[in-house]
What we know:
The complex is a heterodimer of chains A (about 220) and B (about 100). Chain A has about 220 residues and is an all-alpha fold. In chain A, about 75% of the residues lie in helices and about 0% in strands.
Amino acid sequence: MIRSAFNVTLPILFGFLPLGIAFGLLFQELGYPWYFSTLMGIFVYAGAAQFMAIGLIGAGVGLLEIAISTFFLNSRHLFYGLAFLKSFGRWSFRKFYLIFGLTDETYALMTTIKVPENFNRERYYLFITLFSQIYWVLGCTIGAIIGDALSFDTEGMEFAATALFVVLLIEQWIKVRKPLPFFIAFCSSCIALVLFSQHMLLVAIILSITAILILRLIKAVTDG
Amino acid sequence: MADINYLLLVILIMTAATYTTRLAPFVFFASHKETPMLTFIAKSTPPMVMTILLIYMLRGVNYLSFEIVYTFIALLVTIGFHLYRRNALLSIIAVTIVYMIAVQL
């Protein structure tokens, strides 16, 4: 099971490691000891928010402002848990950790893959979440310690994350076989990009869910 | 030396803010029965979120430069490769290596 979880998370490794290194590199310029980059990877564990924080910390921005910005930047996660209300099992330390580790990448992976039948679902999810976070923390640490000395050019490696979403999108299509959700999300993304490029993810998710609910209501009314 | 206490507080606050966003749906719907509406949302969000995330990743591509050409080719290769072999890891590693070579040349 551990091996299988490792294999399915390898694409996340290729996405998280270079991104984590990039974070560590930038973090180092703030002048704090390297292990604070590791700490952020362990406790905050949110890519976009950590990058945003570098600018805010550098400017010495107030804590309240940092709290609010972090909350809004991550508020798309409010919708991610909905897919796992049942499948994370009963309340336990494991469930708290699974929720803690629910990032864009683990959400995308776990909603798409099929858990092999002989595997315990929650345990499998636990390994996926744990591996993913290890990659991220490793990246943050490596970047902060030896980022400057790293001669290996990781430019372009970030395409792994894009490729992962392409592959998962194809798998979602094979699973769903209905163009409507994809079409709605595409239109919502375009609208969100043009009107609210700063908060594109959140706006696009809210627009999509609203649109698909309205369409369902209309269908229910006209059918009934 | 930069202010360690400030940084520790920032980490603490960011941890709490991020965790709140992830935990909220589980707390909010913990006592609710599974309504058809909720099941519908839970089932229809993954394909939508995946579409949105992909567009989000591609939003930074400079469409006035050569970047758009090799990004487009890389996307096509990923789709083709994945439909041909249905092996996610293989598709991703292959296309990422090709993409890295392309951008670094």
